């Protein structure tokens, strides 16, 4: 009994500690986010604020306590669900149905990026003088947590894999809007005032409707997880939002609602997504300066590959340059789709492209895992 009570007390204390850290990260992210909005970085301010807050808080925690800590997966799942629901409610079904003509483009893009990632992995493994498996895991444009966990299980160079994946992700999320030379027309003061007013003036009806949608999305995500759908919280939330759009085509009463999640829920979703990426930065072990410098090589090559892919897509379609660039960007799918939505830049096209890429890469993971023993045997022989 005593041992059981001690275990419960320890679990409770750990829960309080984890969510106290999350609360501090959230508060700091809001402060940084408002600062970035004032500077004019409206489209990515809250995600960047979350990244900065997560990195600062977790690195400070490690320095003060010297205890290991892992990124808050529940925070990322919550962020994915909120962003997925926002995206799903914002998409137009009639626009999505017109994308079937570009199916080959959507299918060819992830294949191109994965082949380019494999080639870059070979180059990086030689530049860094590490094993080929580490190079491939570092440069495969997939989920950071998944690639890092595979590296932890099969290789000793987990830190390098995490570093390159984090640099790729952060560079794309922070840099793509700037690289695309997007100008935000609204003044920063108007944006701050709009955010504050939207929080103050939110109606009780909107809150109730939001809770209903979030509840339905949570149920869908639960069953999606049971069915082993990749990134179930994100994909199932999009499906719930799209279902509302489909139902509105048949039921005029639903069509009149034209519901969107309140802006503060969107901001929370962005912050939570950013925080978990920042936490990965915070837990990343210290590496030699030369290793950090050499890790820039694969990141630059992956960005070049994305630019080449964007040029190819533009030559095959009638999409504008920014749309092609956002479709080909090797960042996180929830984050890139949200950036497209915030920039009001063909969200249906960019959503379709990133979801196909997301599913293709996740479905190919069993083949990647099957190649690992072969790569390991080659490393041992060499």
Question: What is the compact description of this entry?
Answer:
This protein is mostly helical.
Give a written overview of the molecule:
The chain has 17 helices and no strands. With 382 residues, it is mainly alpha-helical. The protein is globular. The N and C termini lie far apart (55 Å).
Q: Got a strand count?
A: 0
- By secondary-structure content and strand pairing, the structural class works out as mainly alpha
Spans of 5+ residues with little confidence (pLDDT < 50)? 181-187
Strand content: under 5%
- The coarse overall form would be globular
How is the main sheet built?
A: none
Number of helices: 17
Helix % is: over 70%
Summed over residues and divided by their number, the pLDDT gives a mean of: 77
- List the secondary-structure elements in sequence, H or E: HHHHHHHHHHHHHHHHH
Cα end-to-end separation: 55 Å
* Backbone CA Rg: 21 Å
Task: Jot down its keywords.
17 helices, mainly alpha, single chain, globular, 382 residues
């Amino acid at each position: 009994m005593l041992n059981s009570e001690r275990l419960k007390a320890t679990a409770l204390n750990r829960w309080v500690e984890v969510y106290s850290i999350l609360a501090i990260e959230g508060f700091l992210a809001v402060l940084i986010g408002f600062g970035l909005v004032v500077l004019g970085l409206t489209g990515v301010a809250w995600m960047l604020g979350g990244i900065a807050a997560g990195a600062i808080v977790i690195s400070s925690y490690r320095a003060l306590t010297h205890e290991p800590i892992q990124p808050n997966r529940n925070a990322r799942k919550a962020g994915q669900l909120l962003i997925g629901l926002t995206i799903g409610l914002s998409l137009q079904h009639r626009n999505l149905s017109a994308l079937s003509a570009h199916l080959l483009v959507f299918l060819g893009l992830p294949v191109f990026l994965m082949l380019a990632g494999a080639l870059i992995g070979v180059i990086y493994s030689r530049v860094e003088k590490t094993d080929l498996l580490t190079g491939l895991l570092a440069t495969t444009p997939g989920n950071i947590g998944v690639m890092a966990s595979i590296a932890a299980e099969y290789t000793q160079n987990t830190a390098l894999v995490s570093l390159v994946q984090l640099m790729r992700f952060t560079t794309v999320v922070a840099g793509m809007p700037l690289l695309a030379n997007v100008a935000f027309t609204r003044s920063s003061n108007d944006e701050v005032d709009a955010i504050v007013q939207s929080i103050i003036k939110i109606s009780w009806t909107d809150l109730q409707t939001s809770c209903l949608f979030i509840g339905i999305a949570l149920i869908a995500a639960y069953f999606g997880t049971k069915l082993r759908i990749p990134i179930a919280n994100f994909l199932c939330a999009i499906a719930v939002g799209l279902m509302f759009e489909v139902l509105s085509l048949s039921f005029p009463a639903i069509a009149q609602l034209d519901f969107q999640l309140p802006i503060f829920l969107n901001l929370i979703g962005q912050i939570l997504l950013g925080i978990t990426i920042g936490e990965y930065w915070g837990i990343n072990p210290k590496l030699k300066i030369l290793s950090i410098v050499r890790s820039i090589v694969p990141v630059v090559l992956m960005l070049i590959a994305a630019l080449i892919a964007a040029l190819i897509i533009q030559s095959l379609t009638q999409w504008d340059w920014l749309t092609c660039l956002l479709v080909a960007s090797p960042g996180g799918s929830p984050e890139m789709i949200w950036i497209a939505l915030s920039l009001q830049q063909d969200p249906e096209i960019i959503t379709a492209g990133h979801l196909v890429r997301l599913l293709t890469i996740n479905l190919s993971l069993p083949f990647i895992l099957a190649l690992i023993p072969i790569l390991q045997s080659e490393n041992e022989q060499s």
